Amino acid sequence: MNRIQQCEEKFMELFGTTPVKNEGTDPEFMRILQRFIFGEVCYTGKLDNRTRELITITVLAVNQTLPQLKSHVKAGLHVGCTPVEIREVIYQCAPFIGFPKTLNAIAAMNEVYTAQNIPLPLENQETIQDKERYQAGLAVQEPLYGSEIREKYSYLPDEYAEAVPRFLTEFCFGDFYTRKGLNEKERELFIFVLLSALGGADLQVYSHAAGALKSGSTSEDLLAALLHAMPYMGFPRMLNALNSIRPLL
After folding, report:
1. Is the pLDDT of residue 68 over 80?
2. Taking every annotated instance into account, which residue ranges of this chain make up the domain Carboxymuconolactone decarboxylase-like (predicted)?
3. What are the CA-CA distances from residue 122 to residues 39, 55, 90, 115, 248 (Å)?
4. Residues 6+ apart with CB under 8 A from 16
5. Pick the CATH number of 44-125+179-248 from 2.40.50.140, 3.20.20.190, 1.10.760.10, 1.20.1290.10
6. Phi and psi at residue 151, in whole multiples of 5°?
7. What angle do CA 96, 101, 107 make, to 5 degrees?
8. Where are the domains of the chain?
9. Cα 121–chain centre separation
10. Kind plus residue range of the DSSP H or E element containing 175
């Protein structure tokens, strides 16, 4: 198949409809967009539709492109992502993009769920009690990252030298990695993409690429994920991420 035929096939798989031909106010631009993303990028690498849509949802949440986020939440449901899986990739954005942007993405997601008659709130995915956040988070963090953060910020005044690594352990790992809905391998891969899309986080991109490899992803998974994310975050951020992870490839 040529890329126009592949675009038509993939568009139907994801959205249950056909791509733009001459409809709308900017059909030329939409043809460029759709044929590139759905006729070429979606056929590069070995990622399945479910993983691709969760990557897309992650990047759109980071970028706060909420109309497109709603479209891809629908597409994710259409190709077999569960409501919980979609919610988890959005929830785990919070330590990296902050609560307000994450709340915006949650609101967009919930609009789709309401329109699809998916009952809210979704089932609880917590697995630990509040008092267990530190130890449970540390049990995930240390095998992947050791005590690097605690050592790196030991130069801070005592209160902050204690608070910074503790907040990271409790909040990022304790509050999110211990949840059900996604496994560790998936969480690390999506966070690697998230940080790549965020920009200005080269050290963290490298660290989470290494974490993704430790969690079971391959270097090909990392490359395929970055390439899939590229149309949504742009070439510069993809190239920066590639440069960051070059020693790991």
Report:
1. yes
2. 27-111, 163-243
3. 34, 21, 14, 15, 38
4. 78
5. 1.20.1290.10
6. -70, -40
7. 130
8. 1-43, 44-125+179-248, 130-176
9. 21
10. none
Could you give the 3-state DSSP secondary structure of residue 25?
coil
Residue 127 has a CB neighbour count (10 Å cut-off) of 11
Show the tokens assigned to 113.
């769920």
Q: Where does the pLDDT of residue 147 fall: very low under 50, low under 70, confident under 90, or very high at 90 and above? A: confident
Helix axes 184-198, 49-63, angle to 10 degrees: 40
Mean pLDDT of 92-114: 98
Determine contact, residues 174/133, Cβ cutoff 8 Å.
yes
pLDDT of residue 148: 76
